[in-house]
């Protein structure tokens, strides 16, 4: 410790909110270089190295070969797959001195695909698994919680190459098993959820989420073991119901631009005849958004398309679910100027009458699947201060289709049919999915099959957030005074503290450090002399969070040292002559 490049901080960094992030900075593991960009100090690098080792071992175990692509990449392959534009503002684009445009890789499907195309040409070369542990760049809109969401971060990305779907399924299953081993070894609670496959396209896809109340992802589960990212939940289409409502009628509902004001006015002025009160769930809310589509051949500048979404009035449109449904288009607000250019829309009173391909606005209109054919609604009458009651889906209005964009709630019926959904939050740690042939097609990766015919290779893509894993483990393993690393990824096996001034204390501590090092342990030894008090040393040891702390102090006069478990707080005295063995036993009790 007297020469370790480390300065622990007593104060929390001003920009940190989550406790793990604060502690990683205070304990000297990482330091912020720019928003979402972090320096890994010696302690941090050791932890990172341990995570990487676990990932490497499990990749090797399924026969994947490691290589490393550059981060600085040519743009052409990304143009061929359309991701140069589809990635939008998240892509770091750079221009070299000759004016050539390049990018900093956000993920490497294109490069892997081209490398295989360069080198292989026959079905006999396949199957093939390749991976790298490499730095990625994404200009995230909201970098967050230190290394949890960085703009520069390390990912393990692997890719599988097969001639057919059966091969791809095998590669996918092998990765799934490897990921279970990796995350078990890293020691945090996780769930495997059905995922959407976002901008990547493709079909089968699952995410490994670390369960954490601080997570940005919401997932659902039910009693049958089904778990899904909230974006991937498919709300079942409600079956048609018998029409019981009388003819639709338009009523004056002055000053009711919101669902709340509408429900109050309905109950006051237009009570139901069945004795029940009107509720928000009786109303149909039509939400307008603007989609910004990326450039394509017809629209070199991209194009904007308004979209109307009909949801029951007691639910919001979920921004993330919507995003996934409309990708690669981005969702923007429907602004005053957009209302101005669609004069038949009456803000606050928009009804199905003007929506849909047949309506006067010609705005595409999609309904939440919970809206059954035959059901009756109160909704905007497309006139200021007026609503229509008993407007029946299928009888009085239709839409252009359905969309999975309404919020999913705790207690909603599960799409599996078994019980209800429970919502929880998580942090995406890994993602596996079957890309299929989409990248291979775009980039022309084909091999000759057994019959000498060219077939397009089918690919899978599999990621693990390596730097994010360190962040997640720190969030999961700490107390008020510091980090409490699990054995598998702690920066050291043991932290020896020489607590006191006497020469014999330092001599004994030196000796224990040497013995343990000789036995193959990773030792950090607080040998700081002079003004550094035992109190400061203990505080630092607690902050740094090595699982085993060995204190050589006053009790040495009685021939004993103190052995502490940082995680449980347990401590016991051990004869100095047996201390090395005792430490070894602790370390070996938890094989990694
Ligand atoms: P997210 O939904 O969290 O943005 P993603 O779906 O964009 O993640 P992938 O493209 O599937 O992520 O990347 C694979 C893995 O890389 C993720 O599972 C995650 O662990 C990690 N990862 C992605 N983005 C970041 C980031 N900005 N910082 C740190 N790790 C990241
Ligand atoms: Mg993902």
Outline of the structure:
This protein has 14 helices and 29 strands. The chain is of the alpha+beta class and 592 residues long.
Descriptive notes:
- By secondary structure, the chain is an alpha+beta fold.
- The chain has 3 domains: 19-69 and 105-233 and 423-475, BirA Bifunctional Protein, domain 2; 249-402, YbaK protein (Alpha-Beta Complex); 494-589, Rossmann fold (3-Layer(aba) Sandwich), CATH 3.40.50.800.
- It is 25% helix and 28% strand.
- The chain is built from 14 helices and 29 strands.
- Helix 12 (503-518) links the parallel strand 25 and strand 26.
- Helix 2 crosses helix 11.
- It is globular.
- The two termini are 25 Å apart.
- The structure holds adenosine-5'-triphosphate and magnesium ion (MG).
- Adenosine-5'-triphosphate is lined by residues 107, 138, 140, 149-150, 153, 155, 198, 428-431, 463, 465, 467-468.
Q: Which helices and strands occur, and which strands form pairs?
A:
Layout: H1 19-26, E1 30-34, E2 37-40, H2 42-61, E3 65-66, E4 72-74, H3 76-80, H4 83-86, E5 92-95, E6 101-104, H5 109-119, E7 128-137, E8 152-162, H6 165-186, E9 190-194, E10 205-211, E11 217-221, E12 227-229, E13 249-252, H7 259-269, E14 284-293, E15 303-312, H8 319-326, E16 330-333, H9 336-340, E17 364-367, E18 376-380, E19 386-392, E20 401-402, E21 422-436, H10 438-443, E22 446-448, E23 454-456, E24 458-465, H11 466-476, E25 494-498, H12 503-518, E26 523-526, H13 534-544, E27 548-552, E28 560-565, E29 571-575, H14 579-588
Parallel strand pairs: 3-7, 15-17, 17-20, 25-26, 25-27
Antiparallel strand pairs: 1-2, 4-6, 5-6, 7-8, 8-24, 9-10, 10-21, 11-12, 11-21, 13-19, 14-15, 14-16, 18-19, 21-24, 22-23, 27-28, 28-29
Helix pairs in contact: 1-11, 2-6, 2-11
Bound molecules: adenosine-5'-triphosphate (ATP) and magnesium ion.
